Amino acid sequence: MYYCTKLLFHVALVFIVNHAALHSSCATIEVDTTSKLQAALRNVQPGDTIVLAEVEFYGFFRAEVDGTQENPIVIEGTSNSVLTSWSSAFNLEASWYILRGFTIANSKKGILIDGGNFNVLENLTVHTIEEEGVHFRFFSSDNVVKECHIYNTGTTRPGYGEGVYIGQDYSKWSSPSEPDKCDRNIIIDNRIGPCGAENIDIKEGTCCGIIQGNYFIGTAMSNVNSDDSWVDVKGSEYEIIDNEGYFTIKDGYQVRTHMPEGGVSGCRNVFRRNKSDLSGNTNGVAIYLNSRTQCDNSTQIYSDNVVINGGEITNGWVIPA
Ligand SMILES: *[C@@H]1O[C@H](CO)[C@@H](O)[C@H](O)[C@H]1NC(C)=O
Ligand SMILES: *[C@@H]1O[C@H](CO)[C@@H](O)[C@H](O)[C@H]1NC(C)=O
Ligand SMILES: CC(=O)N[C@H]1CO[C@H](CO)[C@@H](O)[C@@H]1O
Fold first, then answer.
1. 3-class DSSP string for 105-152
2. Residue nearest to atom 2 of ligand 1 (CA)
3. Is the CB of residue 297 below 6 angstroms from any atom belonging to ligand 2?
4. What is the band of 262 on the pLDDT scale with cuts at 50, 70, 90?
5. Which of helix, strand or coil describes residue 42?
6. How far apart are CA 289 and CA 310, in angstroms?
7. Where is the signal peptide (predicted)?
8. What is the average pLDDT score of the chain?
9. For ligand 2, atom 13, which residue shows the shortest CA distance?
10. pLDDT in tens, 57-102
């Protein structure tokens, strides 16, 4: 067990000499160059805070040291602390981090979370990214993205480069029977878009996340590679509530089955209290089901979803709220 200074006093009081505590403390590490940030990421300990100066950090940044539930690792800056890269700018391959306040811009990908759990990404700005803004891959679960501003992603190839991407297409799984389960991720109170692909892409094989209180802007939709809605829902058991979307070339949300070997996905998702402004396609529907009877009618679309400047709530069935 690792204790940092916050707990050391208490530990001393009860006369427990914790060896780890003797050479550890919740350090604050201030960094103002690429090499200092890279060194800080290598040497960081649970409970430490890395503070980014208001400068541009150009390079490749990878976090591999885990924090803990009691002592997460914090990386914070302001919107003037900017990470940029020729590659993916921030590679979070660890758990129990809080990333807060800074900007990721002008990079190939924004933040890649690979096998990272229980991380919180908050108040970040992610913009002008060639591919995905924030991508959870390789069994990254229980993460939160909140109060972030993610826009101008997918700048090079129309239809590729989502704002937030959860999981991976089944062609990237290790085998057709081993979904890349990125589960229970929460995307809340973000402003997402315009993006060159979906604002959020929820991949098959993932489940049980929450998409709530987000504002989606669809004005950069490409109509390439099915980029014709704010959110593609191919995962199952998501709650999609209290979101607001503006402008689309087809629909607001699309629920689809996309699975290997004739399997089904996109089941038992719940839509409540979303407001969809379908300006851009007055014939669109807010929540489009690829199959009207998707997964034995298990999609729950409540009548408290509201549509303006468009057609119906859904081409499926509406449940009284
Ligand atoms: C979010 O970041 C901005 C820009 O750095 C800062 O001004 C603001 O206080 C932060 N908001 C919160 C809630 O921390
Ligand atoms: C789905 O709903 C439709 C329309 O109410 C109904 O005809 C169909 O039998 C339902 N399918 C299942 C599997 O419940
Ligand atoms: C029906 C409706 O308008 N529901 C909500 C959709 O989400 C936005 C943003 O959270 C709310 O302001 C709406 O009240």
1. EEECEEEEEECCCCCEEECCEEEEECCCCEEEECCCCCCEEECCEEEE
2. 101
3. yes
4. confident
5. helix
6. 16
7. 1-27
8. 92
9. 296
10. 999 999 999 999 999 999 999 999 999 999 999 999 999 999 999 9
